[in-house]
Amino acid sequence: MKLRELILGLALLGAITFGSCLAQ
Question: Burial letters for 1-24: b for 16+ Cβ neighbours within 10 Å, e otherwise?
Fold first, then answer.
């Protein structure tokens, strides 16, 4: 696994989590 892919994955997961928090 490449470091860039890991960072992108975490960024995407973080964005989804942040969006879910705002939606509530």
Answer: eeeeeeeeeeeeeeeeeeeeeeee
Give the model's pLDDT for residue 1: 65
For the stretch 1-24, pLDDT in tens is 699 999 999 999 999 999 999 998
User: What is the rounded distance in angstroms from the CA atom of residue 9 to the CA atom of residue 21?
Assistant: 18
CA distances (Å), origin 24, targets 14, 17, 18, 21: 16, 11, 10, 5
SS percent in the chain: helix, strand, coil, step 5: 90, 0, 10
